[in-house]
Write a structure and sequence with these properties.
This protein has a four-stranded mixed beta sheet, sandwiched between helices. Strands 3-4 form a two-stranded antiparallel ribbon. Helix 5 packs parallel to helix 8. The longest helix is centred in the C-terminal third of the chain and has 14 residues. It has a single domain, classed as Glutaredoxin. The N terminus is likely disordered. It is about 40% helix and about 15% strand. It is built from nine helices and six strands. It is an alpha+beta fold and about 200 residues long.
Amino acid sequence: MIDRRKLLAALPAGMAALAAPARAEPTPAADGLHKQPWFHEGFLDLGEDLAEAAASGRHLMVLYEQAGCPYCRELHRVNFARPEISDYIAAHFLVVQLDLWGAREVTDFDGEALEERALAAKWFVNFTPTTILFDKANAGASDPRAAETFRMPGYLKPFHYLSSLEYVATGEHARQPFQRYLQDKFAELEAKGIDPDVW
């Protein structure tokens, strides 16, 4: 079986550069965070955001980042530059970006209004980026722990990041643990002769 890395290694140096996907260098906004055109600009009321997402048939993603975070930059430069990921997010998730050290007021699912940094402490967000997914079925939850479906603390490579999104969007999180879901996905790809690019 030939995988992409072996194929690129076998190409002459100039050809390998042409075959590699171009990566745009993301530029941070005034607040130091990188932005995407599909980020939601709402009123930072998470219960309302989840209800809005559910009404449009989508789930809610809360993305915690911080200025100067190299892994946040990598999330935008690598993962979000891939159309299969950015298109999937835009189709299946309403995305709210929060700043780990930010002072904007956010209303939690339980109605408590607090600054972004205080919400991060309340939710035990210790790494950036941290991606937290909320199933649309949890709309109306008044407890953040009951609303949360899946969490990605830190940077995940594209294969695992997209798999995590699919895990929630397809409802597999209600049927099996994530590791079993990944094993099934690997087995399915292997049966088709596909070597997933997980690095």
